[in-house]
Known about the structure:
There is one protein chain. This protein is an alpha/beta fold. The protein contains 8 helices and 8 strands; from the N terminus they run βαβαααβαβαβββαβα. The protein has a 5-stranded parallel beta sheet with strand order 2-3-1-4-8, sandwiched between helices. Helix 4 packs parallel to helix 5. The structure holds adenosine monophosphate. The site of adenosine monophosphate has 18 residues, from helix 2 and helix 3.
Amino acid sequence: xxxxxxxxxxxxxxxxxxxxxxxxxxxxxxxxxxxxxxxxxxxxxxxxxxxxxxxxxxxxxxxxxxxxxxxxxxxxxxxxxxxxxxxxxxxxxxxxxxxxxxxxxxxxxxxxxxxxxxxxxxxxxxxxxxxxxxxxxxxxxxxxxxxxxxxxxxxxxxxxxxxxxxxxxxxxxxxxxxxxxxxxxxxxxxxxxxxxxxxxxxxxxxxxxxxxxxxxxxxxxxxxxx
Length: 226
Ligand code: AMP
């Protein structure tokens, strides 16, 4: 047993299918509240763009809509947590864990860490058909350090230009109908195990992102931050 130090750090774990609003909420919390957030998809795409050793291993998985192997992605996330939580009491994981195995690796890390972590899973609920429409029409900021998402329900102030950094918006390669359907199927398959895994251990919150506006989702989540 490792002696615990420093103030507890709350890790908000965003669980939801692609297009359910996780990235929009996480981006807003980071820009408006300064909460460190990791979008695993964004970090993977940055590695690919920079052609790092990891990026070379990620590319074929991402293009096909397949998951990156659990050990590889979990190590990347744990390294990120350890380099980003200094002087913070909260952080957000957007898109990790996605499998029961990844969740178990996260719990192992938390239990053996010298930090005290509180895990706060948040499940984003939405109907699959809404997601397909959103993803087909989604664009993201082309700046790899930003990658803010936009959709018909969250349009940029100036057409095709990112509100946050002014870069041009682009379409993601994996936001293609065949790949989208595959990604949604993979989410359903793993959510089946993942959500009960968390429900057994932690107080899981659910946000209905279909019925709520983007501001509504932010307001519901803000209550969890206090
Ligand atoms: P996202 O941007 O969250 O839609 O993720 C895009 C892609 O990145 C996914 O389809 C996977 O290929 C990869 N990815 C992101 N997060 C994970 C994860 N936790 N486990 C495995 N692969 C991931």
